[in-house]
Amino acid sequence: MLNYILGGMMNNKDRANKVKRLLGLREKDTPNEYYSVSDILCDLRHYCTIHNINFEEENRRGENGYDEEIFYEEKNNE
Predict the structure, then answer these.
(1) CA 40 → CA 13, 21, 22, 49, distances in Å?
(2) Cα 38–chain centre separation
(3) Distance separating alpha carbons of residues 15 and 20, to the nearest angstrom
(4) 69, 2 Cβ separation under 8 angstroms
(5) pTM of the model
(6) Which pLDDT score is estimated for 41?
(7) Interhelix angle for 55-76 vs 37-50, to 10°?
(8) What does the alpha-carbon distance between residue 46 and residue 53 come to, in Å, rounded to a whole number?
């Protein structure tokens, strides 16, 4: 994740907008879009279970990437 920041391709607001664009997060669930973050997390857990992916490990890695991106953006906005 950090490599995108270093390349100047995306900032954290861009990342949030990408999620909204790809997943929906509008006013209601549809077959192609989600309404809430909790619905996305729930379905990701199902996906991980079916595909033998360790959700907790992926979540930990995501949290680490998030922390790095927040740190980097805050440091560069000082």
Answers:
(1) 19, 14, 12, 14
(2) 12
(3) 9
(4) yes
(5) 0.71
(6) 93
(7) 130
(8) 10
